[in-house]
Design goal:
Layout (H helix, E strand, L loop, with lengths): L20 H5 L3 E3 L18 E9 L2 E10 L8 H18 L1
Amino acid sequence: MQTSWGKPAINDAPLMREDCWAIRRVRPYLITDGQHGLLCRHTGEEHPVSSICVPVTIQSQVVGLLNIQSRSNENPLTLAHQQFAAALAEQIGLTLS
């Protein structure tokens, strides 16, 4: 299942393990410079300014992905955003288990 708020930033193709650095590494992945960073394939054609991917896990198994993107230079995502996203993804995993 994929969902988004605002203008959809992700493509509609099924998400595969090789499409996301966070899923490959099973840990959060933060890009602070979308022009020079190593982007995940699922981020879409319009590259974000910054992006956070956090795997949602249940008993060490990846069952989903939380992806947050910023397309504004005035509001880039930070390490604090990544920490919040990681806490949120953990709560999602606990809720789903």
